[in-house]
Amino acid sequence: MRRSLGFLRRLLLLVLGAPAPATAQGRILVDTIRSKAIAGNSIGDTPDREVFVYTPPSYDRTPNRRFPVLYLLHGFTSHPREWLDGSYQGLDLQQTMDSLWRVDAGEFLVVMPSADNAMGGGFYVNSAAFGKWEDFAADELVRFIDARYRTRPERVSRGLAGQSMGGFGALYLAQRHGDVFGSVYAMSPCCTALVGELAPSSDVWRYVRDTTVVPTPAMAGRVRIARAMTAAFGAPYDQPGAWSRFLPVDLLAKDATGMRRSCAVVIEYGLDDAIASVPLGSRAFADGLARANIPYRLDVFAGDHTNRTRQRFEQRVLPFFAQQFSGAAPGGNCAS
Question: Cβ neighbours of residue 115 under 8 Å, at least 6 residues apart?
Fold first, then answer.
């Protein structure tokens, strides 16, 4: 208990802007993986995938030390660079991670694969159209990182997080690969159930079914997401059972085994999120966890889909994993 309280005090110093020495810094490295799982996809996307890797300050100085790893999944039409170049309210993930280290919050690697494709994203599932993204993320990528970097190659030392489509991917992969990833944090996860703009009665599907109808500018982005999901899942949404194999809320209702192995589960969304499937799906997933008696945390904050991204990373997401990886997290549900 004393260790946990001390850890939380140090994180509070980070949140309040504690002064920090401008000494050692982490690094951002960029690798390229030629993926067998993605090769041969029907839309012609390259199997050569960029992977951005943050290594903490002591990585180069302590050659015998091994580190936990956070796998971070980006959203639809996004790219890992956006977490580094200030796109989100000036967020520079490298600087934020260095600040965590300066208040002795523990060090870990952050791995950020580029998952954009010609349709905006493949939702991190195995797809005839887009390639086997699930196999890439949960197998190829993890094996590559474990072989190339000094990691702790066990599930309790691997975290999984994502935003929007990445939040969908985090929940999906956590359920499917509880033997690979220990903790999961879903930031504003979209598209987890047929609710909101994805509900069968919504205007989105009328536009998707009738290609001669031009959606309004307000609808265009949602229609693009729905079309990408249809391609990724290989069937129309209303084909019986077609989407239930992929939607995290449906998967959880069928079998909670994967989530039951999680060390910790956090879902968060903004009160002003205009993408209706985000709050509705987040609450539905939390309700499913509650029915399965799986510990979780549902965080609701003042903000929309992206306008608190920097704040959430700095004050919630990254400190959460620092605490998990340090062993200072209270409670937990981390079965072996």
Answer: 49, 73, 74, 121, 122, 124, 133, 137, 166, 169
Average pLDDT, the chain: 90
Q: Pick from 81, 104, 101: which is nearest to 91 by CA?
A: 81
Cβ(264)–Cβ(329) below 8 Å: yes
Contact between 284 and 278 (Cβ < 8 Å)? no
- Residue range 120-125: average pLDDT? 97
313, 93 contact by CB (below 8 A): yes
Structural domain includes residue 204: no
Look at 2-11, 238-247, 274-283 and tell me which has the smallest mean pLDDT: 2-11
Q: Is 123 left (phi over 0), alpha (psi -120 to 50) or beta?
A: left
Tell me, yes or no, whether 213 lies in a domain: no
Q: The domain that contains 250 carries what CATH number?
A: 3.40.50.1820
Backbone angles phi, psi at 248, to 5 degrees: -55, -40
> For residue 104, what pLDDT band results from cuts at 50, 70 and 90?
low
Looking at residue 333, its pLDDT comes to 56
- Sign for the pseudo-dihedral over CA of 202, 205, 210, 213: positive
333 in any annotated domain: no
Among 69, 246, 72, 242, smallest CA distance to 148 is for 69
Q: Residue 207 falls within a domain, yes or no? A: no
Structural domain total, the chain: 1
**pLDDT exceeds 80 at position 297:** yes
Nearest partner of 167 among 309, 35, 8, judged by Cα: 309
pTM over 0.70: yes
Give the DSSP letter string of 117-183. -TTS--TTSEETTTEEHHHIIIIIHHHHHHHHS-B--SGGGEEEEEETHHHHHHHHHHHH-TTT--E
Amino acid identity of residue 4, one-letter, is: S
Domain that holds residue 186: 2-16+25-199+241-326
